[in-house]
Amino acid sequence: MNLLRRLSFGIELDLRSLAVFRIVMGLCLCSDLATKLFYAKDFYSDWGLMPRTYWVSNYMNDHKISLMLANGEAWFQYAFLLVALICAVLFTVGYKTRFFQIITLVLLGSIQSRNYLLLSAADDLLRLSLFWSLLLPLDRYYSITNPALTSSSQTETGYRSFAGGLFILQLVIMYLFTAFYKVNPTWTTDSSAIYYALNIDHFATPVGKWLSQFTSFGIFLTRTTLIWEFVGPLLLFIPFKAKVFRSIAALGFIFFHLGLAVCLNLGTFPWVAIAYWCALLPGEVWDVAFQKVRKTLPTVPKVSASSEFLNGKKLRLMESIFSGCMVLVLLQNISDVTQNKVFLPGSVKTFLLTTNLNQVWDMFAPYPIRNDGWFVLEGTFKNGETRDLLTNKNVTFEKPNSVADLYSTSEWRKFYLFLWDQGERKILLPFARYMCRSSKSTQEESPLSTLKITFMKETTPPLGMEFPEVVPITLWQHDCFAQ
């Protein structure tokens, strides 16, 4: 029985940790939606990057559903995102938490399906964390419904359920499969992956660029990163001193992602991952944190942690459905990493796409990109004025001090990276048309006449070799009056 109790801790989550997860993940969600709201016209309307007719004809997956496609006017996109933001705020503060969590999840799925060219791993993890936490009581603490900040020493705060195990398993899947994707010589043999990653100008921060010069340290980071992504999640399943090992795993990954945030511009991904790990912190963390101030904070009466939420047959039914979904998610991940379609029948793939449970964790894998650079958008206006439309300065082909700072949001950064990676008419044509619509001269509101898109390609050489010369590549030339 003692061993069974130890093993059961593997699916236990502390109610206070779940509340912190709700708040931190909610803040990430609100930040993400606020950014998308600011650029709603550019990202989602028919005036923007991808008009609905062009998107449906060239990019839309038949099995994806987006309510945003119901109307292409800018006002509709603003209204849609504003409703999603309001629901996210209500979820964050814990008002009718599960109801607004479901609404937010549906709206978020529509937003992400509307233009997946803007998405990154942060979007997947954000969406999936909301799904797998649907059966968990996220509002027992720090919420409008239950504002208590701490509990009496007799209050039971541990919550054990099969749904908690599925919630934990999704996080484990992300790290283990991204580690499997990285089984490549740049990670396992010459250990140059971190060196290449820190030289991706689209992502590197000044700290990251500075660290990239220390090759021995980069080799050490590469090896420890791969080992930690394999070993770290497995610490959650050690039955002995389980709370200690879970604390090591959670705090280790929290500091791991803080390090990523310092070195690379990865949008909300580090913060979303940190929020997820907050849910796994053992209750002892909060006991220690509130020990000195317990007497001054409001407490809650003793109550069973499992007595108020989805009891009996309803909970078992939902857990069974979620378990089936998790089996399909595992099949999809195994199929992708092994490149074996036997594991993923067409019907399963369709189901995962329709429910937005599809996921691929090939982050910086099998190796970081080596052909990096920056864009020069040379725009000539009808009045003769010429400037770089990306920087709004005079056209120059000199490398900017910080390429990453050229992009105001992670969505723009991802889109421009996709623009270079694809480099074909299907993506360049609508982008050029968008630039013609959105660009105005500094004088007399003169329209844009011609656009030349140049990518300054800079290849990262192997360790110990000098950087080659930058190669300008003309991706597209466009006449705005001959569309």
Explain this structure.
The protein has 483 residues and is α+β, with helices and mostly antiparallel strands. Helices cover 51% and strands 8% of the residues. The protein has 19 helices and 6 strands. The strands form 2 sheets. It has a 4-stranded antiparallel β-sheet with strand order 4-3-5-6, covered by helices on one side. Strands 1-2 form a two-stranded antiparallel ribbon. β3 and β4 form a beta hairpin. The N and C termini lie far apart (74 Å).
> Judging from the principal axes of the Cα atoms, what is the shape?
globular
Order of helices and strands: HEHHHHHHEHHHHHHHHHHEEHHEE
Number of strands: 6
The biggest sheet, with number of strands, parallel, antiparallel or mixed sense and barrel status, is:
4 strands, antiparallel
Multimeric organization: single chain
Helix content: 40-55%
Summed up:
The chain has 483 residues and is an alpha+beta fold. The chain has helices at 2-8, 15-38, 40-44, 52-58, 74-93, 97-114, 121-132, 162-181, 185-188, 193-198, 206-211, 215-231, 242-263, 269-278, 283-289, 312-338, 346-354, 410-422, 425-438, and strands at residues 12-14, 158-160, 371-381, 386-388, 448-459, 471-479.
List the helices and strands and how they pair.
Elements: H1 2-8, E1 12-14, H2 15-38, H3 40-44, H4 52-58, H5 74-93, H6 97-114, H7 121-132, E2 158-160, H8 162-181, H9 185-188, H10 193-198, H11 206-211, H12 215-231, H13 242-263, H14 269-278, H15 283-289, H16 312-338, H17 346-354, E3 371-381, E4 386-388, H18 410-422, H19 425-438, E5 448-459, E6 471-479
Antiparallel strand pairs: 1-2, 3-4, 3-5, 5-6
Helix pairs in contact: 2-5, 2-14, 5-6, 6-7, 7-14, 8-12, 8-16, 13-14
